[in-house]
Design brief:
With 363 residues, the chain is an alpha/beta fold. Helix content is 23%, strand content 28%. It is built from seven helices and 17 strands. The chain is globular.
Amino acid sequence: MLQAADMSQVVVGMSGGVDSSVAAWLLKSQGYDVLAVFMVNWEDGVNPEGYRGEVASGCQWEQDYADVRQVCQKLDIPYTTFNFVEEYRKQVFDMFLSELKAGRTPNPDILCNQEIKFNRFIQKALALPNVEAVATGHYAKTDGVKLLRPKDRNKDQTYFLHRIDAAVLPKVLFPLADLTKDEVREIARREEFPNADKQDSTGICFIGDIDYTAFVKQYMPALPGAIELQDGTILGEHDGLHLYTIGQRRGIDIGGKGPYYVVRKDLDDNRLLVTNDENDPLLSQLNCRADQIHRLMAGDFPERVETMVRYRQKPVSGTVIEQSDSNLLVKFDEPVRAVTPGQALAIYSGDQVLGGGIISEAW
C-alpha cells in the first residue's frame, strides 16, 4: 500500500455517492493531497443509428456532480470533471447493444470498469502533474499486486473488477477495503455529508431507475415471437428476445398458471422458452464455458477454484476442466441457477481474484 509521504497527489474518482465521498475523506484524513474527479460518461442524445428516442435515461449526472461539489467544498479539496462520453458510447454502450442483438445478456458495468474507470480514467489521472496514484470508492482490496476481496463481503464489488488490467494495481487505492457499508454511512453522517443517506445506485448506470424495456426499445426494434413451454405449448408473444434473460421471472405477462421463468432463448426460431416450475432442472447448470479470458495472475488458473456468475452470489467451488488463452470450461460442484450467456464468470482462489471470462454457454 502506498503511503501518504510517497506521493504528491492522489486522484479520487467521485460519483456523488456516499462511498466515494467517504473514500475522499479517508484519504484527506490520512494526509494525502487529494484531487477529486467526477466522470461524465453518459449524456442523453443520439444513439449509434442517429435516432434520438423519447425516453431519456435515468442518468442524472448534474445532481450527482452537485453532491460532489458540496462534499469537496466541505473537505476543502479541489475538484474537476473528466468527460468520457464518446469513449463510453463506443467502448461500452455500443458493445452493450451488440451483445443484446446477439441474444446475450451483457454486463456493461464490468466493461465500464475495464475500459473507462480503470483504463481511460487512470491514464488521464496519472498524466496530471504530481499525481502518483488513483483511488475509488469500490469495496475491494489490493496489496499492490493482487486484487482481493474486501472486509464487507455483502458489498464486495470484485466481481465487477475482475477484468481490469493487473498492471494498474500498484497505482490504485481502495480506501474502503477494511470498512463495512454501515461504517461508511456512519462516517458520512458524523461528518454531515449531504449524501450520507443517499440511496445506492442500482441497475445499469446509463439507464438508472427508469423502465429498462422502454429505454432499450428506442435502440432496438421490436421483433415479436412466440413464448412457449418446453412441450411446444404457445402461451403468448414476446417483443424481442433481447428484452429477456435466463432465469427472469418479472415482465413475462402471459397469464395462465404462472409465475413463469425464462429457461432458454431460441435465436434461430425467435422463441422464448419458459417454465412455470420454480425448481425446473433446466433453470440450473453444472457446466459453464467462457471465452474472452482475462487473467490477473501469471500462468493458468488452478484446477480447483471458486466461482461467481453474478454480483453478490455466494461463491461456488468448481473444477477447471479445460483452459486456454481464449477458452475456459468449469464444472461446478453443485448446480448453479441461471448461468447466463453474456454475463461474466469470475474466478477466485480464497480472497484473491484470479480473473475470469464471458459466459458463452452453460448446461
